[in-house]
């Protein structure tokens, strides 16, 4: 059994290492090489390494948003066989679990692999199976909650909060559960609770220094917002997204839709991002300051923005040939009303 898992892990890791985005590879001999490779590998391996060892879900940068901002479209030949190898390894693992459904370790690895492939819906189901087999594993429950939120467009709803609460009941110091609980409180403008969770997170034994530092920054941010009484001042925009009649038949219900706000300064770093499924269109979504990736770039910091929407058949945040897009063009972030975005163009 151990040998089998070593083989599966090696296959999955090998496939992941093959798909390091070219943009993250620094030129040979440059001072940034080690840092670029480290950043790339950290993002790719997070699904296969216990989440508490790496950056957590705590507003240090949404991977989807980071992928959206960069965006040269890769040629069809670039690493063409790497995703296939990854998919094949995951498919073999899923097939094996059909014959051995009581393998908790297998379900856990399958769930993390699905998250690496940006398939949070499938990851949620795999985590559910793993949690049923290991109900006392707090870290596993926290990962389950993270997958549930990802599958629901980042929404930490009541069902997800129950899983987070269960994880913290098992282990009050579970890092990802604390980070998720803090983010949920922050999203509902309960800054006092958010600060309490982040304070607990910052004091978790053996926590990575960068995570503790980010938790303290988040505490300062929440304290400042609470002091300003900024609920009314926080910027938000309502976005109505639909498909053009010409493209409706080309979209599959399971395709992923990214809706995101961009500043008028030319940066591709989104100010806020929501993820939907194509079967939810047409839809009206809200983008607001609570979805910012960094405190220094919020909707409220820019008077002019644009709203883009993109359908990704692959489910990946990085734009690719064949994706379908639409944009609002420049609009006011203050008095825009409901912003209409029609997805009518195809990325060539």
TrEMBL record:
Residue spans crossing the bilayer: 35-57
Disordered: annotated segments: 313-332
PROSITE patterns the record matches: TPR
GO CC terms in record: plasma membrane
Keywords: Membrane, Repeat, TPR repeat, Transmembrane, Transmembrane helix
Domain Cytochrome c-type biogenesis protein H TPR, residue spans: 93-203
Span of domain Cytochrome c-type biogenesis protein H Ig-like: 237-343
TPR repeats mapped onto the chain: 104-137
InterPro entries with a match to the protein in the record: C-type_cytochrome_biogenesis, Ig_CycH, TPR-like_helical_dom_sf, TPR_CcmH_CycH, TPR_rpt
Domain of life according to the entry: Bacteria
Protein name per Swiss-Prot or TrEMBL: Formate-dependent nitrite reductase complex subunit NrfG
